[in-house]
Structure formats: C-alpha cells, structure tokens
Amino acid sequence: SNWPSASLVDDVCKQSDTTYGDCVSTLESDPRTRTASDLRSLARIVLETAHANTTKSKEHFEIMAKSSMTAPDLMAALKKCIFGYDRAAALFSSSRMKIDLDITAASYDAIAAHAGALFCAYQYNSTTRIDVQTIRARNIYLESYATIAFVIINQLGG
C-alpha cells in the first residue's frame, strides 16, 4: 500500500496484540484511514469507527433478543452483551473526546472498552453451548478496536 498513512498503519499493527492482518483490515475498514496524516488523526478515526461498529453490534443483539427465532438459552447472554456493548460504545466516545484533553484518561477508556467483549463472551460461554458465529465475531471486532486504539493512544503519550 503506498498511501500516506500506510507506514502509520504498519507501525501500529506491528505493536498491536491483534494479529497483523486483522489489525490492518480493521484499520482499513474505514476509508478515512488512508487520509490520516498522523497518530492523533488515526486515533480519532479508529475511535469513531469503533464507536459506530460497537453501537451497530449492540443494536444487532437487541434485534436478536426481541426475535422469537432466538433460542431462549441465549437471552441472558444477549442482555449482558447489550449492556457490555453499550458501555464499550460510551467508552470509545469518551476516549475520543479526551484525546486532546487528557491522553492518559483517553488511553484508559480505550482499553476499558475491551471489557464489553469480555463481559459478553463470559456470559455467553457460561450460559449456553449454542455457537453463534455473529456473537463471537463481534466480540473479536470489539477486542481488536480496543487494543488498536490503546496502542495508538499510548504512542501519543498515554
């Protein structure tokens, strides 16, 4: 990739706990990434995308919870996932607002958002044997966004 932010993405993804390929595809999922001129602008893009993606996932879980097609075994897990994702979305938004004010707090909020996926996964894994690909995939996305945002903000001095 030879666009301005390619080396920025490369540097971030080499330091992320997320696999390199997943990190790159997560960052490139937002076309604005290509226009990021520095870490701060990349952090804003990642946090905005993370907020939007997490909110969409929460809404997906709400639809599943209301559907008569959803197995009753999944209801408790879905309620926890909705709660965890709502909290994670709020933390991504909070982190985005704090980037210019308090970089340490922005860093904390970004990594704390990761707990939304853990909370959801724990409840899901402990209450049902049903394997729902969409829940697993969404947890992986949330964890990736939180980890990547944390790496970027730490490079900013968080």
From TrEMBL:
UniProt GO molecular function:
enzyme inhibitor activity
Q: Give the Pfam families listed for this entry.
A: PMEI (PF04043)
Q: Which residues form the Pectinesterase inhibitor domain?
A: 4-152
**Superkingdom of this protein's organism:** Eukaryota
InterPro entries from the xrefs? Invertase/methylesterase_inhib (IPR035513), Pectinesterase_inhib_dom (IPR006501), Pla_a_1-like (IPR034088)
Mind telling me which NCBIfam families this protein's record contains?
PME_inhib
Stated name of the protein: Pectinesterase inhibitor domain-containing protein
| Species of origin | Citrus clementina
